[in-house]
Design a protein that fits this description.
Length: 91
């Protein structure tokens, strides 16, 4: 997970938005529309980053397709310290 976080947050152009998504989801679960509004980015951009985070085990979605909520995974929570360390390096 640590390597995946480094890749997701520093090795690609969307790292800043993915970090912002993680921060928002740390507060509470949200759907893609809520995240787009909170971050002031396009819905399609949020969906792209959520898909990337989901592919790497950082977020997971609920079962409901309409208004699907996204949550941080237990696996991510076990590696939250690594996330915070990475954030210190890039902020």
């Amino acid at each position: 997970m640590d390597k995946a976080l480094w890749y997701l947050l520093t090795a690609t152009r969307g790292g800043e938005n993915r970090a912002r998504l993680i921060r928002e989801l740390s507060e509470r679960p949200r759907n893609a529309n809520q995240l787009a509004d909170a971050l002031d980015v396009r819905y399609k951009t949020v969906r792209h980053h959520l898909d990337m985070l989901e592919d790497h085990g950082v977020v997971e979605s609920g079962d409901n397709e309409y208004g699907k909520l996204y949550f941080l995974t237990d696996q991510f929570e076990q590696h939250r310290e690594a996330f915070e360390e990475i954030m210190e390096h890039i902020e």
